[in-house]
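Entry 12.
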Amino acid sequence: MAGWTMDYFLLKEEFIQLKDEGVNIPKNLQERFNALKANDENIIKSEIDSIYNELILLPSDCNLEKEEPNDLNAIRSLRPDGPRNFRWKPSKEELLDKLHGAWTGRCVGCALGKPVEGIGMSRDANGKLDGRKKIKKYLQDRNSWPLRNYFPLTKSDNGIQITCHASCRENIKYMEPDDDIHYSLVGLGVLLEKGAGFKWDDVARYWLSHIPVTAICTAEAQAILNFQNISSRGNSPSRGSDWTSSYRNPFREWIGAQIRADGWAYCCAGNPELAAEFAWRDAHWTHRRNGIYGEMMFAAMIAASFCESDPMKLVHIGLSEIPRNCRLAKWTNKCLDWILQYEDFESCMDRLESELQDMHVVHTINNALVCIIALFYGKMNTTLTPAIAVMCGLDTDCNGATVGSIVGAIAGR
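Predicted 3D structure (tokens):
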């Protein structure tokens, strides 16, 4: 059973993922896959299974594996120095105000990006990213560029169609259901049920009890399928979180865990190290490596934003909870250099897109950089920052929501 998509496309993504992980793939395996046809799925399933099983047995890149571990203690052994815990002691009123601000900011940013989520991820006929340009064209044709309000629905002849009309300017009255919002509530729900000692399988069971499977995507869909396969027969000691996050899960470094950081961070306000640990417990059964680090990094940043407002300090706090030489950290540091070079977010995004043109539109790393770009060019403003995150394209609702949490916690309700 494939899960999120057909077995053929899972296998196609697995080749890409293994190459990203530095795995040396034998030429004959690639040739065997190239000989398959997607529309012959039923005929070729045995060949797909055979190729997939051989891919799973390939040795990993030992050097990259050392720089990018999945175990919490190993991750912590490779992280830079950081503040860990601000020992923040707010009044009840201050805490509630900042929590309300963070939650409002997340909902605002998510709703802002929902109508153009699909557009933001689009590519042209040559495979080049063009979502950002389409978003700009849509807004310019409606005299709404740069974005400073929800997307307008007024008609135009440019052929660009937006979705989620309940989140558009003329209609918005509430936060539409969305996975970015569901997962924030999951953090609170798990902690209410299990307390601070929750384990990864507590999170998995909470999902099964509270989230429709149809609302679970990519890496999460594969992981929950894997979890169901082991939990229905009792938890086999040979099949734990390493297996649920990895088995036929080529999406393991995509953005799915990163968007789940906020609920844990709110409950650890002022304590970025604990927020990152909660995020690791949540992430490591669905994701690997940079997929885990994305959630840890932003959990730390959001938790710290209850006490700190400087974007450079917040980014370095996030970096202080992940391995210093992982790919996410390396690209984040490059992005900080770009921000010093370019006067506006569009020029910075031109650089990002040229450097990461072939990276999947819902990968952790490129979307993390969009969030960082938005924080700096948005000057931590509660309107401008999520608007820039959305105008940057890629996963618009996810990135708008993530930066919305940060600027919302800083500003308060």
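Annotation: The chain has a mean pLDDT of 95. Residues 92-113 form the longest helix (22 residues).
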